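Go through this pair.

…
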Amino acid sequence: MLDADFFHRWLTSVAAAVEREADRLTALDSPIGDADHGGNLRRGFTAVVAVLEEEAPATPGAVLTLAGRKLISTVGGASGPLYGTLLRRTGAALGAEPQVSAADFAAALRAGVAAVATLGGAAPGDKTMLDALVPGADALPTSFAAAREAALQGALATVPLQARKGRASYLGARSVGHQDPGAASSALLFEALADAAEATVTATGETPGE
């Protein structure tokens, strides 16, 4: 089963991944966006780690809900509301249970991804974060590692696409040939999730979520 500590470790791992990859994310954003994606997410997830340490929510749902609220209040542009909605809606779907199964989490995450799609008015193939979020969430019932690989491949597959949503869509055909920065950062969420799961196995010998 997955408890609040697991989700805290996941978001701490996300923050570390964003810190490591912030310059790359900003470089991806530069030709088709505002060149601020990495810096914005670094600020947001640094704030998430700080508030989780301060308030220490007791349930998985509360961890994700608090993190989502913090991203919305901290991160400018589109990424704050979108990532904040993803985490808040996932947290709401998990409810107040002290522990959840991997299947529960997968279902809740799909609800979070659906909320992102509604908020952004986007769909897979539009060259947005959904191109990584949707395959990652769909693969999560198989394993954390499968979700990581699916999200990564989804992000890479945005390179030949023409953007149909977001700032990049204003560039038309000039958006082709660039990886979507939101898809790249979404892939980091699944990378961090798999890392948190593998660390749990190493520490306890048990697969999280079972």
